[in-house]
Amino acid sequence: MRPALTLIEGGKDGARSALQRLYQTCGPAVRSRCRYLLKNEAEAEDAMHEVFARALKGLPAFRAESSLVTWLMQIATHHCLNLMRSRSAAWHEQTERLARLAPVAVGGPSTVEGRDLVRALLSRFDDETQRAAVHYHVDEMTLEEVALALGRSVPTVRKRLEKFAAVAHQEAARLGVTDKEDSHG
Description:
Blueprint (H helix, E strand, L loop, with lengths): L2 H6 L3 H27 L2 H18 L9 H19 L1 H14 L7 H14 L4 H12 L4 H8 L3 H22 L10
Helix pairs in contact: 2-3, 2-4, 3-4, 4-7, 7-8, 7-9, 8-9
């Protein structure tokens, strides 16, 4: 039995204690995921707290089919993608405003443009394909791990990722972007 699962089975107090330790150790990673997807520090902080609140509420249903960290990242990804979807109209206005302000982030303007392109590309797909793409390309999960996380078969996940890759390649060709490295990274 996994050590984290043993802590959870200690009852409510044990679960809260385990979640508190998990918050201390995984909070920065969850916040980073939220920041990556939402591109807003304040929203990322709020999202991180929501993720842990949902984890605490859903802890009794945790089946240990994955690690607690993977489970938290799934909750974070799902929550952030839902937030992005809910503000899709506002997203266009924000992107235009950011483009006018010419923001410079770590890595320079091209990094910001790349992130905006990825967000725009993700917004073209359904929730499950978005989650599959993030788990595979950002989390670097294997096809089998993504399939398990989504509760789908490997062939289904492969089809979704191939569809995502085809659209990404079309968009890259349209923009004149060339592949500099393997597409899985």
